[in-house]
Design brief:
Layout (H helix, E strand, L loop, with lengths): L4 H10 L1 E4 L5 H12 L7 E3 L3 E4 L2 H4 L1 H8 L1 H11 L4 E8 L9 E4 L4 E3 L9 E6 L2 E5 L2 H4 L3 E6 L10 E4 L12 H7 L2 E4 L6 E4 L5 E3 L10 E7 L22
Antiparallel strand pairs: 1-12, 2-3, 3-4, 4-14, 5-13, 6-8, 7-8, 9-12, 9-14, 10-11, 10-13
């Protein structure tokens, strides 16, 4: 698919854009099956069903294919350029036994292969066996996240809320209340097979779902530059590998 100038303008000025009907029912059903079939492991969180997966690029071939699919890359390359690559993917669901509110925050860490002391990279942590670090803002400003919706996601189903235009810098926690009075809040309702594209630093939140079913989202982060020094991205998926039917 091709995106128009309005899509680029929305990402530039607002920090996000909703694009409907990116994937077909066949593709979505394949992704649902792939998530359900994931083996047990520290990356996979289950109750009655899978409700969260970290390191999804590592544990799912279907998600690696999705990250390289032309339909997804067509939303990323106009923003990051043709040399962009996927660096991390996660999965979230909101079901009655795993439902939550998410307070206003920014996505401020990246996943790397190993710890290397480089100026500006701080707050190291390890989650599900993956090293994470908080990079300088200029790294995050050159990234884009693609949230693929496997279910209809109206406001009642825990749709993401964003503060449009808040994506150009990192905001200290004590300034977020002020941001809520400066930037307009938008509820990002997305249909089955649609995508929410967003800059990592946009302030975003979500409410618990009021719906009895699922709110399944595959969240893929893309970058377009190498890290400084000897730091390396944990994953690097660039070339289209399928998922185009």
């Amino acid at each position: 698919m091709e995106v128009n100038q309005d899509y680029r303008d929305q990402i530039s000025s607002n920090g996000f854009a909703v694009v409907e009907n990116v994937l077909s029912s066949k593709q979505i059903n394949r992704l649902r099956t792939a998530i359900t079939s994931l083996p047990e492991g520290e990356e996979v969180r289950r109750k009655v069903s899978v409700y969260g997966v970290r390191n999804l690029l590592e544990v799912s071939e279907e998600i690696r294919e999705l990250a390289g699919a032309s339909a997804i890359r067509s939303l990323v390359t106009p923003i990051l350029g043709p040399d962009c690559f996927a660096v991390r993917a996660t999965f979230f669901d909101k079901v009655p036994d795993a439902n939550w509110n998410l307070r206003w925050h920014q996505d401020g860490v990246i996943a790397v292969k190993e710890r290397v002391n480089v100026s500006g990279f701080t707050a190291w942590s390890n989650k599900a066996g993956t090293l994470q670090v908080r990079p300088p803002d200029d790294v995050l400003l050159q990234m884009l996240a693609i949230r693929v919706h496997l279910d209809d996601c109206p406001a009642s189903n825990g749709a993401l809320r964003v503060l449009a235009g808040s994506h150009a810098r990192r905001w200290p926690r004590e300034e977020i209340s002020e941001c809520k009075s400066i930037f307009p809040e938008v509820v990002c309702e997305v249909g089955f097979g649609g995508v929410l594209a967003m800059r990592p630093l946009i302030l975003h939140a979500s409410s618990a779902s009021n719906a009895p079913g699922h709110r399944r989202v595959v969240h893929i982060e893309f970058a377009c530059r190498e890290l400084p020094g000897d730091l390396e991205w944990k994953q690097r998926i660039a070339a289209p590998t399928g998922m185009n039917q």
